[in-house]
Write a structure and sequence with these properties.
With about 625 residues, the chain is α/β, with parallel strands linked by helices. The protein has 29 helices and 14 strands. The strands form three sheets. Strands 3-2-4-5-1-6 form a six-stranded parallel beta sheet, sandwiched between helices. Helix 9 links the parallel strand 4 and strand 5. Helix 4 packs across helix 7, helix 16 packs antiparallel against helix 17 and helix 21 packs across helix 22. The chain is globular and about 80 Å long.
């Protein structure tokens, strides 16, 4: 075990050499959990602004950094003292800033997309009056209306925060696909990129949209020697399905490929477990710092039928005894600040488990069936829910607090009934402005009335008020689901998207509130998406196929309690991502968060099989496994 924590310092030197203006070179930094990836990124940025700052300033250029979340962007910017020579942004924000001036190209792409949609819908037909036909007709009319007014759109808009309303607005998926397409087909956009940002770093590159990442790599290949594309990441920490699966193999031979081997976060025993989890996937084991100590891990195995709160409370108490650390006794209490030494962070490996435990299972199950919305559902940016999260939820909170000023502000800033143009027109006619205000008040009263007498309305009931009053704007997919759901004709099915939203609208609004709390990270639980890059002194990882209820993951297969299916083996033979691969990555990400001690609680239909697997594969010693 190395005692020198500076064993990876050569990596920062190698990256610095890649930024030399006389010989710029793209690179992929392979950095596992706790290796100081963000520190290396910040050091690289500082070196770039120091060595090339004068050149960047004279040419009006910036070094660009793409991060995965707004929180990460803020963290990196603050570490860099908000250097004006550096642009730090999320992928959606960066992509839009890159293409926003290519308005005619955007218009053409949108037109092509709409024409394809119209052609497809016109070629279909269903029984007159059926829900399926109403769905088709409504979506066809929506596409026709959009394309008929396309020339009237003076400028397309986009808001990375999730609110994109009106015929001129683009959605998240469109911005990503448009950027990838234009970078690939329009050399001018690639030239614009390298002119503005001769150095581009992408954090968590393994989770960057595959098509867009490949487009950036194409630009780097076309401008080798004048543009540096720096990728930072770890393929074992890929958690989104639209990320690039083969990023390590796709890196050109001309790139530098530094690797960090030291884990600065976890003690030796936890690092050894993390290495064992990934050992069957790649050859990137980590080394632990001698000064981090040994650490403690335990695997607790319980029957799937167990009461989870009883089991997890008992595990916490046992860990307090095993570790001689009374901090574990706080595991059943809500988490406080993640850096507080008293915290036990309870991590779950799959969002369905969180939805079940936190009370938004009906809403989440419905929308998680949409492949195109899976990433936005997990990060909270899904467009169809924004009106409920950002207008209705705060409006109801203000209503309960009798805060009429806040209610008025929410309506004024977000309602089309109070749009600037509407108010300007109304002010020109006597009595009209008063009527506009009265209409808004009636709409708000009808909306807040849904909660009278402690009632719990469904999302559908809320959406119906919005549709009837136009006080706030529903997303097109939600409006389609609402309209077709009112039909009683026919027994055939609507599209997958419409069916998913119809199911989601049947959920009580309280589930939307719970979902909002969860995606903000304010719940007592966290999943892999919410904790990647974070660390906690004490970690409890909870594994349960029964609660996960998904085909995407299988802990029973990973831990030997359930055999692989033919589809699993076929996918493995073909080199495709499998449920086993996804589950292994999730387990690696969560287990590697622990800084001192780690408890894994596995609920299984075959506890004995899990025990045998864990011992036989040397994940845990026999003295580290507890059958409950």
């Amino acid at each position: 075990m190395p005692t020198d924590p500076s064993v990876d310092d050569h990596v920062d030197v190698e990256i610095a050499e890649c930024l030399a203006p006389e010989a710029p070179r793209s690179f992929f930094l392979y950095a596992g959990a706790g290796s100081g990836k963000t520190r290396s990124l910040v050091n690289a940025v500082r070196h770039g602004t120091t060595s090339r700052g004068r050149e960047l300033a004279l040419r009006g250029q910036q070094l660009a950094v793409i991060t995965f979340t707004n929180a990460a962007a803020t963290e990196i910017s603050s570490r860099l003292d908000f250097d004006p020579l550096v642009r730090v942004s999320t992928i959606h924000s960066f992509a839009w800033n890159l293409i926003r001036e290519f308005q005619e190209d955007i218009r053409h792409c949108v037109e092509v997309e709409l024409k394809a949609t119209i052609t497809e819908l016109e070629s279909q037909s269903s029984k007159a009056g059926s829900k399926k036909e109403m769905d088709r007709v409504h979506r066809l009319q929506r596409a026709r209306d959009r394309i008929s007014t396309l020339d009237e759109v003076r400028r397309f808009t986009y808001n990375p925060a999730g609110e994109n309303r009106g015929r001129e607005a683009l959605n998240h998926a469109q911005v990503i696909s448009l950027t990838a397409d234009l970078l690939t087909t329009k050399p001018l956009l690639g030239q614009s990129l390298i002119t503005r940002h001769p150095i581009l770093f992408i954090d968590e590159s393994q989770d960057t949209n595959k098509t867009l990442l490949e487009a950036f790599m194409l630009v780097a290949a076309s401008h080798e020697g004048e543009f540096v594309l720096g990728l930072f990441g770890d393929t074992m920490q890929r958690i989104y399905t639209d990320g690039k699966t083969d990023i390590g193999e796709a890196v050109p031979a001309t790139w530098a490929t530094p690797v960090k081997v030291m884990n600065h976060r976890s003690p030796e025993r936890i690092v050894r477990l993390s290495n064992r989890i990934r050992a069957d996937v790649d050859d990137h084991p980590q080394q632990a710092r001698a000064d981090r100590g040994n650490g403690i891990v335990r695997l607790f195995i319980a029957p799937s039928s167990s009461d989870v709160e009883t089991i997890e409370s008992a595990v916490a108490q046992q860990m307090a005894v095993i570790t001689h650390d009374p901090g574990w006794s706080t595991a059943t209490k809500p988490d406080t600040d993640s850096t507080d030494g008293r915290v036990v962070k309870r991590l779950i490996l799959e969002h369905h488990m969180a939805a079940q435990r936190l009370g938004f299972a009906e809403l989440f199950s419905a929308l998680s069936s949409l492949d195109s919305e899976r990433t936005s559902l997990l990060d909270g940016s899904i467009s169809g829910l924004q009106v409920f999260l950002k207008q209705i939820k705060p409006l109801m909170e203000a209503h309960r607090q009798n805060d009429n000023f806040r209610i008025a502000r929410i309506v004024r800033e977000n309602s089309p009934l109070m749009a600037t143009r509407v108010l300007e027109d109304a002010s020109q006619q006597a009595g009209t402005l008063r009527e506009v205000l009265r209409t808004c008040q009636l709409a708000v009263d009808r909306l807040t009335g849904l909660w009278n007498a402690n009632a719990t309305p469904t999302l559908r009931e809320v959406a119906m008020v919005l549709n009837d009053t136009s006080v706030f704007v529903l997303a097109p997919a939600v409006q389609t689901a609402l309209v077709t759901g009112q039909s009683s004709g026919g027994d055939d099915t609507v599209t997958t998207e419409t069916a998913a939203w119809q199911s989601a609208l049947a959920a009580p609004f309280s589930e939307l509130i719970n979902y909002g709390t969860y995606i903000k990270g304010a719940s007592p639980f966290a999943t892999h998406q919410g904790v990647k890059g974070l660390e906690f002194p004490r970690v409890m990882v909870v594994i349960s196929d029964f609660e996960a209820r998904g085909f995407m993951f299988s802990y029973e297969k990973l831990l030997g309690a359930k055999p692989l299916t033919k589809a699993d083996t076929d996918n493995q033979m073909a080199g495709r991502d499998t449920s086993l691969d996804r589950t292994r990555r999730l387990m690696y990400v969560t287990c590697s968060r622990a800084m001192q001690s780690l408890a894994i609680v596995a609920y299984s239909n075959d506890p004995a099989a899990v025990h045998s697997f864990a011992a036989d594969n040397e994940w845990f010693g026999s003295d580290e496994i507890v059958l409950i």
